[in-house]
Amino acid sequence: MAKISYLAMKTDPAASELIASDFKDLGNAAKKLANHAILLVGSGLGFGTSFFKWLAFIAAVYLLILDRTNWKTNILTSLLIPYIFFSLPNVLFNLLRGEVGKWIAIIAVVLRLFFPRRFPDWLELPAALILVIVVAPSLFADTIRGGWVGIIICLIIACYLLQEHIRASGGFRNSFTKTHGISNTVGIILLLVYPVWAFIIKLL
Prior knowledge:
The protein starts with a helix and ends with a helix. The protein has helices at residues 2-67, 80-87, 90-97, 99-114, 124-135, 138-144, 148-169, 172-177, 181-203.
């Protein structure tokens, strides 16, 4: 019995070291798993933000086109210009802020000043958007556009357009049941998706 006890006591330190080593390996594996999970979630959230930016941009352009057709809406579509400015995907924003946007802006200004009859009304808002993007100070283009203020401005504009559209339609139910009202309602609701998503991501 004494011999058996002696052998057990002799092997206990080795077993403890083996168990400690196993726990250490498990801890390292858990840390790696957590890091990979964080990277995966972060990339997914980034993709979601980019996707909703494109969705908001398409919805805003759709509302601009809808407002310039034969059927006029009652919403203040001029507010879509600052909304697009603050939510425009970075690829398009950088393209329009560069030489491409400068050429478009100068052509629009020349046409508007010297050939006003050849400058259609439906080009006024898009031309204004290009001018704003080109001449905006870096405070607006770089700091505010990608921060809390830009997101809040987009959220306020979307909420204001939605409540104005519902009021003009004669109520929430009418905004979904009228033939022309539902198209505007869906477009404005899509405008809400990006700022709400971006606001949640900022809080995380």
